[in-house]
Every structure is written in structure tokens, then in C-alpha cells.
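Homework help thread (please don't just give me the answer)

Our assignment gives two proteins as sequence + C-alpha cell strings and asks us to describe the second one. The first is just a warm-up. Here they are:
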Amino acid sequence: MGLDCWGTMSLGRLGKSPVRVPRFRWCASLLLTGFLVVACQGGGQSDERLTRFIDEVMFWGYFDNHVPQRGRVAKWTADLSVSVEGHDAGRYLSRIEAQLERFSEWTGLGATITDTASSPSLKIILMADDDFLVNREHVSCYASVYTKADRIVAAEVHISLAEEEEFDHCLSHELMHAFGLRYHSGIVQSTLNPAHREAYPTLWDELALQVLYDARLSLSTNRVEAGSIIQDIVREHMAGS
């Protein structure tokens, strides 16, 4: 069986409209003018709202052109070797390491930066370019994810360094995609919420990753089967918080 490429998830620059892409591709424009976004600020969220948020970022996304019934759970099943490449990589290394440590904590996976791996599972590529042309749109960053039988086997995150203030947000947003949360949601404050440009993953992003990598949510589980499992895990986490 060959690899499936989930294609390109791109973070649109200011003033850009949403990108419409073919089937099997992810569109990730963060500036979606013309849409009414219901965004929750701050603290407490209901179990139902959080369950819906995770359903959207995992399976379909309110802002993404996708049929939710076709969604299946996809994630990494082994530790990641990570390379940081490209323009001025050393300057950003500590910030990338800090983010990867958080993602490792939330997913239970190792994510180690190395310059010795011949084929790193995750590549983070920094470019001096002003932006990238992806699907005929100019974007600040994007990610490509490759799967085999719904297991993520490789991913690349590309980030433009043209705007320093966007770096942490781009990194957070694209790592969320690279770890298996394909889509977007306007339900809660999140780095995957088009109404916000969160520099770092929020508590709700952390919860979404913990749910995705919970052992009860196995590879290839479809959206219908996953519903009650996600709900149970969310309730457990909220009860313990």
C-alpha cells in the first residue's frame, strides 16, 4: 500500500481569502472574512462545546470544505525524529524545542531534534521568502502530512520568516496539523480558530491532542464511532481539572 498525502494546509496572510483545494487536501486559511465566527473567550467551557470543538478539528472543520462522515482518526504511532532546516535555523531552535516538548507531553510521543537522521519523520523548514505560493494563494506557512493506512508516517512544516511576529503562531498552528488535527473550529479560543492568532496552543488545543492520542481512540476510527469515546475522554479530563 502506498502513501496517502493529506496535501497542503496553508496559513493565509492578512488580506487573503480562504483557499479552496481539491479532495484529500487541507485548507488552513486563518483569515476568513465574510464568516461569522462564534468564538469563546477565556475560561470555562461545557463538555458539549469542547466535544464539538474536538470533533471539528479532528474530522471536518466548520471552515473547511470537507464531508465529515468521511473523516477517520489518523495520528503518529511512534516517536518522531525532527529536523530543523533552512534559513537562520539556529536562531529559532530553542523556540521550536520548547514547542515540541509541549507536544510530546500532550501526546506521549517523543519528538527529538536531530541532525543525524537520514530521513526525519518531521521536517521543519524555515524560509526567508516573503510568502509561499500554495494552490495559487500566497500564504505565510503550510504543512504537508503523509499517511499509510491512517498512520502518519511523515510530515513537513514550512514557515516564512518574513514576519517575525507570526513565527510562533505559524509554528503552533502547523504543528497541530502535523500531529493529526486536520481542520479548524471557531467554537473555542484555539490556535486553530480563524478568529484568533494565538501564538501558542491553548488549554483546549492541549485537550484536543490528549484526546486524539488517548489509547481508546484507535487508528481509522470513523467520526460516528469516535463520538461517544471523545465525549467520555473530555468528561474525564474536565472532571479532573
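The one we have to describe:
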Amino acid sequence: MATPASPAEPARARAAPPAGPKRPSALARGLSAAAGVLVRGSSSVFGHVKTRGATAVGDFRARAEHSRWRAYALGCYGLIVAATLAGQLYSSNPLGVYVKVQRVDIPVSTLIFVRNDSRFPWKHARIVVNGIYSHSRDQIAAGENVPLDLDRAFAVHDGSGKILRRPPKNLPLQSLALDCDRGHYETELK
């Protein structure tokens, strides 16, 4: 049984009923109706396009040449992928040779810097300038930079290894070739 409220205690207030949802304004209702008309109209127009497109695709797939055209498309795509990979993986400098020529005025000399930019050492390296003057090294390590003074490091050798002559200090450089155990590299110097 519930106990009655005593006069010293005030009566508890009842909770107000929840407020009903607000009714949208006339502008909102008008925009909603316009959007509905636009959606129904475009669905009607594009529905016809969709059915005509589905019919055309079905007719195309039913033809015998459809599978042949699909094979042509996939084959062309494969050729494009293969050509892209070949172009990305090809290198005109497979040894990773970096060459820089520095001419010095006082004293007159020419320095040639050869750097191994590959991940592998070059063994039995032979550097040839202008097809005549050569310099040999047993090994050029990966990442190693070799500074070579043209008139001191390069020479023409006979069969026994004896130096026959050295290049002049102001020799015009035309080409440089590098031969080693990993391959051959040749470049023209300007």
C-alpha cells in the first residue's frame, strides 16, 4: 500500500509528456517535393537507358566475336604492362658507373673521377681513355670513388706492362671505357 503524502511534504510533480516532432517548414517541404520529382523523372529517363544498355550488352555478349575482342583487349593490356616493366627495369648503365671530368688550370692537369655506384665490387677493372691510354686496378669496391690524374694514372703499355708513353696534361678527352668482371661500360666525354 502506498502511504499518503503528509502535509509537510510537497506533492511530486508529474513528468510532462514528450514534445511531438517538429513539423518541417513550408520551404523544407517544397524542396523535398522538388527533389522527389527530380529523382522520379531521372529514374524514368535513365531506366530506359539502363534497359537499352543491358539489351545491347546482352546482344554483344551473344556474338561469337565477343570473346575474341576480349582476348585482344587483354592481350593489348598485357603488352602495355610488359613494355612498361621493360622500360622501368632497363638501364643504359648496368655497372652503375659515375664519371666526372675536372679540368684544372693551375697547375694544368685533368682529373677524372670514377665512382662505383653499384652494390657490387668491380674486379680486374681497366679504365681506358680515348681508346689508347689505360689504367688498371685489381678491385674497385662498391661506393668507392677513384680520383685519377690523367697524366699520371693513365699510360700506353706494351705487352710486358712497361710504360711506353703517358698522355699530355691537356689531352682533349673523347671517350672513357671501363671493363671489369661484371661487364663493359663506355661513354663519350664532352
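TA reply:
I won't write it for you, but here's a hint about the kind of observation we're looking for: The mean pLDDT is 83.
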